[in-house]
Design a protein that fits this description.
single chain, mainly beta, 6-stranded antiparallel β-sheet, about 40% strand, binds beta-D-glucopyranose
């Protein structure tokens, strides 16, 4: 198959911006539909073990779906993915204060996913391309100095590529003009039975991590790196997501299921001055019913796994189907939550004029 793309109107966002939808037809058969509205993945068709394609992501038919409920389904997250405790941290001796709008019962509040209007909520510049066997889109966005309280203007770029081997590669880069934290990720939720296929508890997940980050009641990591051995967080040998998700474990009770960060096994130590550049296996998700699977490879030190524990049945997804509890799982590659307040952990501070870069690959297959 020759790779190609089509571009259609997607709709108008609640901010009055016009969004487009890019349908990328990969040479290997995978089809990815993404919008310039925050790089959102709207549909992703992958074949099952008999070659039958199905849309395997949770999303909506128009921008309104994102604007009316949880906005993060399938989007690019920036400038800082995940939580910063109380929205505060110290940078170069100065206290930075961000809106702390997100809270879990018993928590003190935090800044989540870049704030009230994160990078997910903008229409980005978008240039589709075909390059040999590859097809993709390059998204660009400029975040002004002071955006959501963060210091520095940032020029961000995210390149989505779909290869003939059914790999969806996501390459992030960002250049700030002042020192600032950057921690970008992709928030796609998979359900290999389709978004109306019910819970993902029957999917088998593998995570290449000996340690995870326990949290306080507000879902902020306590600072401990806990050994997964003997806990419901041990996915090293592959385990059904539902196997232990309801176990009486204080961490699972806080997250209402999995909503935690695992520290990936890598050559680099989990330390402030470590640089993460090589692509390493992070996780695998597979559905035994139809054989669909994805392997996640990343340059990042961590993966946050979130099993849609707050998904609301009141919201309707594509084709009028209802969302449901645990109807998808997000494998969000990133640096650890609250890194700006954890000086010993891999740093998320990007210095003025330096380039943040990060790559994650989603490698699809069926067997
Ligand atoms: C967070 C969840 C949050 C979700 C919002 C995830 O990355 O870890 O706690 O509810 O994003 O969509």
């Amino acid at each position: 198959m020759k790779p190609g793309y089509e571009v259609v109107v997607f709709g108008t966002t609640k901010y009055g911006e016009k969004a487009r939808l890019f349908r990328l037809n990969g040479a290997g058969g995978v089809v990815l539909e993404v919008s310039d509205y925050g790089g959102k993945v709207v549909r992703l068709f992958t074949p099952d073990r008999d070659g039958n394609p199905k849309d395997v992501v949770v999303g909506f038919d128009s921008p309104a779906g994102w604007d009316e409920g949880d906005p993060y389904w399938g989007c690019i997250i920036g400038r800082y993915g995940n939580r910063i405790a109380a929205g505060r941290f110290t940078l170069n001796g100065e206290e930075i204060r961000l809106p702390a709008l997100n809270n879990a019962p018993g928590g003190i509040g935090c800044n989540l996913h870049g704030g009230a209007r994160g990078w997910d909520a903008y229409v980005w510049g978008a240039e589709p391309f075909v390059d040999g066997d590859d097809v993709g889109v390059v998204f660009t966005h400029v975040s002004p100095d002071g955006d959501e309280g963060f210091p520095g203007r940032v020029e961000a770029k995210v390149r989505y590529t779909l290869t003939k081997d059914n790999v969806w590669r996501v390459e992030y880069s960002a250049v700030p003009d002042r020192d600032t934290p950057v921690n970008m990720t992709q928030h796609v939720y998979f359900n290999f039975k389709g978004e109306a296929g019910g819970t993902i508890e029957d999917h088998v997940m593998t995570i290449a991590a000996d340690r995870y980050l326990p949290t306080d009641a507000g879902q902020i990591p306590t600072g401990e790196l806990r050994d997964v051995a003997g806990t419901p967080f041990d996915f090293r040998a592959g385990m059904r997501i539902g196997e232990k998700i309801n176990a009486p474990d204080p961490d699972l009770e806080i997250g209402k299921g999995y909503d935690h960060c695992w520290v990936l096994n890598r050559d680099e130590p989990f330390a402030a001055d470590s640089r993460y550049e090589s692509l390493r296996f992070a996780a695998r998700l597979a559905c035994p019913l139809n054989g669909r699977a994805v392997e996640v490879w990343t340059t990042e030190p961590c993966v946050q796994v979130y099993t849609a524990n707050w998904a609301s049945y009141d919201q309707k997804a594509k084709g009028g189907e209802h969302l449901s509890f645990r109807c998808g799982v997000a494998l969000e590659t990133q640096h650890a939550p609250d890194s700006p307040n954890k000086p010993g952990w891999p740093s998320t501070i990007v210095r003025a004029g330096e380039t943040y870069s990060s790559t994650t690959e989603f490698r699809f297959s069926a067997s």
